[in-house]
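User: Sequence for Alpha/beta hydrolase below. Tokens please.
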Amino acid sequence: MLDFDKTKPVSLNGTVLATFERGEGNALVFVHGSASDLRTWTDQLDFFPDRYRTIAYSRRYHAPNAPIASDAGDPIQTHVDDLVGLIRVMGAEQAHVVGHSWGGLVSLLAAKQAPELFRSLVLIEPPVISMHVNVPPKLVQLIGLLFSAPRLALAIVKFGASAAGPSEKAFRRGDDKLAVERFGRGVLGDRYFGALSGERYSQVWENRGPDRALALHQGFPDLIGTSFTDVRVPVLLIGRGESPRLFGLLIEDLEERLPDASIKVIGNASHLVHENASEALNAAIQEFLGNVG
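Assistant: Structure tokens for Alpha/beta hydrolase:
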């Protein structure tokens, strides 16, 4: 994986973020998800600098940045503001932005907030659950969703029972190891979670603080009724591979809400598709960016 010694600090919004930059041309910015930091993009950072000014950063509270306090919340708007600020500070306007999972949701909200900074979006299974229900969901919302979108309602219930719920309970008991395992197995599946290398699991463990904050302080934004018709840049939605069915259903719905979006499914990969199937993902992104121009 990428060595933190090769990163450079960038100061913005009252914090310091580790960044990695290589290459020239149009900016291509990578935004990581939960249980990760900029090292998760190692394969992309080796591939794209020949074609783009490639930038990755560790989001606030993620290694090697200053950690989050154990009792603090972690609202997503802070990360949205950081992404917008980073693009401006680094002079990377009109950026192509690739966001994974929580980083995908950050990227989507940033493009809505500051559309002038974005040229295109690649969103890898963003967890847009709160477009449909609160997180955690209210019973009346789930009942309503059972009538309007039964497959999605059942997928949300299953994911809550198998991953989000048990992880939150473990975090509340102070059992971070079990919390990480329950959520990791729920998102990646037993096979892929069990196959994590020691180095990759260390990255998960080092970055568990923001996951704890999200679980304990209900950090999902309320997006019910939010329109995304103003996100007019081309968007490539990546899924589903061998991820939980929930992610596939969410991006299918999101495709319908965006003016210029398409879906690319990459098989034989978990939710960490950029790590498990990096060649296929890199090719899909390269093709998409070539069409965007």
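The mean pLDDT is 96.
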